[in-house]
Design goal:
5 helices, Glutaredoxin, alpha/beta, six-stranded mixed beta sheet, 183 residues
Length: 183
């Protein structure tokens, strides 16, 4: 219990420290995370959201950044196959106003046994978030009304312009083709 309280205190302290105004303004905005009470933090894992409504902020950023949000899972072979292209995109556009967010839909019981080792092995540099909301029927349409719920699925948006892709990308060039119109 003391470890959990210490961990939560550390997260709150870091969040407050990171939100202090800086002298140099960064126009490539990071997604603003909600309060720690809505996020579950486990050592070695990215932030875990149990309710889609707590994660909806990643779709509501109103700035000059292009957001590339990919829904994936370690048990989805096409998802894992395309992850390197998202990582390459993240690296290639690191100095541009592009933010790649990888939303893992791994099952809660497999976070420690599957996701954690996968992340450690693959050292993903893109922002990774976990969504464990079991009621996909209630939130899939909120991402995009045409989404069947199958993964991989990708949303690209900037401001009010939004595109949705329920498919696997076979190359970095194919992924760039859908992102460059937003730049």
């Amino acid at each position: 219990m003391q470890k959990i309280i210490l961990l939560l205190f550390s997260v709150v302290f870091l969040a407050l420290a990171c939100n202090q105004p800086s002298k140099v303004e960064n126009s490539t905005a990071k997604a603003t995370t909600p309060t720690p009470s809505k996020v579950k933090i486990l050592e070695g894992l990215p932030p875990i959201y149990n309710d889609f409504e707590d994660l909806v902020f990643i779709f509501q950023q109103k700035n000059d950044t292009t957001y590339v949000i990919n829904f994936w899972s370690t048990w989805c072979a096409p998802c894992v196959k395309e992850l390197p292209y998202f990582e390459e995109l993240n690296q290639k556009y690191a100095n541009k106003k592009v933010k790649v967010i990888l939303v893992s839909l791994d099952f809660p019981k497999q976070l420690e046994t599957k996701l954690k080792p996968f992340l450690a092995k693959n050292n993903l540099q893109s922002e990774v978030l976990v969504l464990t909301d079991p009621d996909a029927n209630s939130w899939v349409d909120k991402v995009n009304p045409t989404w069947s719920g199958a993964i991989p699925a990708t949303v690209v948006y900037k401001g009010d312009k939004n595109e949705f892709y329920e498919k696997s990308f076979e190359t970095l060039a194919e992924l760039e083709e859908i992102v460059t119109p937003f730049l």
